[in-house]
């Protein structure tokens, strides 16, 4: 039966679980061809259980990826919002970016000597 220690099905489920938990690329335990060949030896119920397990693993992986993407987006938004005050009047970077600020270089020659190219 499927839950015997020597069961190929049980080995496949355990292997899928270890791969899902590791989140690390592992050596392939079985090739797709070997898995498909092994599936032929299982009952319909056992194959359905494998499909359900694989589907659950895929859903979890998709959800984790979406969560990581949302977390990254939240962190980027928070960083951008935190930086806004630096560009506002009185902020540390306001004078560098404000059209009302004085030029950083005294002359265009000093600007060119600093290794910065103009669009002119």
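-> sequence recovered:
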């Amino acid at each position: 039966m499927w839950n015997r220690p020597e069961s190929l099905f049980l080995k496949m489920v355990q292997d899928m679980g270890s791969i899902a938990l590791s989140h690390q690329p592992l050596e392939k335990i079985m090739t797709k061809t070997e898995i498909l060949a092994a599936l032929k030896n299982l009952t319909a119920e056992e194959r359905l259980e494998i499909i359900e397990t694989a589907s659950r693993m895929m859903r979890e992986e998709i959800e984790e990826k979406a969560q990581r993407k949302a977390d990254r987006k939240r962190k980027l938004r928070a960083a951008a919002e935190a930086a806004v005050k630096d560009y506002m009047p009185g902020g540390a970077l306001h004078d560098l970016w404000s059209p009302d600020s004085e030029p950083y270089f005294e002359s265009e020659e000093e600007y060119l000597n600093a290794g910065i190219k103009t669009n002119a």
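The radius of gyration is 29 Å.
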